[in-house]
Design a protein that fits this description.
Blueprint: H1 10-23, E1 27-29, H2 30-37, H3 41-53, E2 57-62, E3 65-70, H4 72-90
Helix pairs in contact: 1-4
Length: 95
């Protein structure tokens, strides 16, 4: 029997990362997002790259500061993930 490692699913991590950016007004410093997402740096970079390739976030710089921004597509995806999470929670399941 194969047991899945406990921890957050990929969708849960996407939701958490997008929620953090949204909560910060749609733009957050990279270091703050990394810290609040509670994901090891190397794994975080993979998730950030996936979200960016899918057009859900974009990265920008202001001098030495690195920012992550929620795109319009990312905001739509976040809303759908929230809806899915509520639906699953009503069924006694989780993301």
């Amino acid at each position: 029997m194969h047991r899945r490692k406990s921890g957050r699913s990929r969708l849960r991590i996407y939701l958490d990362v997008l929620e953090i950016v949204y909560r910060e007004g749609g733009k957050v410093r990279f270091t703050k997002l990394l810290s609040e997402s509670n994901i090891p740096y190397d794994r975080f970079l993979r998730y950030e790259d996936e979200l960016e390739r899918r057009g859900l976030i974009s990265e920008s710089r202001d001098g030495d500061a690195r920012y992550v921004e929620l795109t319009a597509e990312g905001a739509k995806f976040l809303e759908e993930l929230r809806r899915m999470e509520r639906f699953l929670r009503d069924l006694g399941l989780g993301l």
